Amino acid sequence: MWLIFNQEGEFVYSINIEPNPVDVEGKTVVQSDISIDLMTKRYRLVHGEIVTEDFEMPEPPPVTPPTVIEKLANAGISIDELKTALGLK
Fold it and tell me: Is residue 47 domain-shared with residue 63, that is, in the same domain?
């Protein structure tokens, strides 16, 4: 497997075939047989060595429920159309 790191030494992506030099211009390419786990690890290239760091995905922010106006807009209904449909206008 080929691991691609940007100029800051941060892991960018991996590929199974030797990369085309044009595709990795300005990046560092390292051939390795390590198993990549992006859910719990982060990878960096430090002085030519691959360093792994434990990583924990942050909790996603809580989802706020949509407002009535947003619900109507998602249904393609305007406030004026709703008022007309309810006989309020």
Answer: no
